[in-house]
Amino acid sequence: MEPTTDLNHKLTDDATRLGEDASDVAEDLQTHAENAWDSVQRQTNRAVRESSAYVHKNPVHIALAAFGFGLVLGLCLNRRHPVSFKNRYIAEPLHQSRGMLLGLLVACGALLRRTISSASGAAEEIAENVGDGVQDSLKPWRKAALQTGRKLGL
After folding, report:
1. How far apart are CA 29 and CA 23, in angstroms?
2. Rounded to 5, what percent of the chain is helix, strand, coil?
3. Contact 120/112 with Cβ under 8 angstroms?
4. What pLDDT is recorded for position 41?
5. CA distance 106 to 116
6. Running DSSP on this structure, what letter comes out for residue 153?
7. CB 84 within 8 A of CB 77
8. pLDDT digits (tens, 9 = 90+) for 50-101
9. Whole-angstrom Cα distance, residue 1 to residue 56?
10. DSSP state of 82
C-alpha cells in the first residue's frame, strides 16, 4: 500500500507545482498584456497630439490635401459611361415622372374611393328615409283599406 500512497503524494505535489507554474505564467502574460496595452495607448495618444498640432499649424495644406484626395477618390469611383443627351434630358425625366404620376393616381384613387363611399352611404340613408316616408304616408290608406275590407266581409 505504500507505493500507492507515495504515488498519490507525488502526483498531488506535481499537480500543485503545475498549477503554481500555470498561475505564474498567467500573471506574467497579464503583466505583459497590460504593459503592451499601456504602450499602445501612449503611442496612440502621442500620434493624435502630433497630428492635431500639424493640422493646426498647416490648415490650408490639410484642406487642399483632403480636397485632392476626395477629388481623386470621386473620379476613381465614378467610372460610369457618359450619359447621352437623349437619356439625360428625355428618358430619365420621363422615367422620374412615371413615378410621380403613379403616386398622383394612387392619391386620386384613394380620394375617389372615399368620395364614392360617402356618396353611397348618403344614397343608402336617403333611400331608407324615403322608404320610411312612403310607408308612413301609406299607413292611412292601408288602415282605410283594412276597414273597408272588414265592412265588406273580406
Report:
1. 10
2. 95, 0, 5
3. no
4. 92
5. 15
6. T
7. no
8. 988 888 898 888 889 889 988 888 878 776 777 778 887 888 888 888 888 8
9. 82
10. P
- Assigned C-alpha cell, 13: 505535489
pLDDT at res. 133: 67
Q: Say how far apart CA 136 and CA 85 lie, in whole Å.
A: 75
pLDDT at 152: 78
Question: Given a cut of 70, is residue 1 above it in pLDDT?
Answer: no
What pTM does this model have?
A: 0.36
Dihedral (Cα; 97, 99, 101, 105), 10-degree rounding = 180
- Give the HSE-up count for residue 63: Cα atoms under 13 Å, Cβ half-sphere: 5
How far is the C-alpha of 127 from the C-alpha of 130, rounded, in Å?
Answer: 5
* Angle ∠(30,31,37) on CA atoms, nearest 5: 85
Inter-CA distances, 118 with 67, 105, 128, 130, 131, Å? 60, 20, 15, 18, 20
For range 45-52, the mean pLDDT: 90
Q: What one-letter code names the amino acid at 34?
A: E
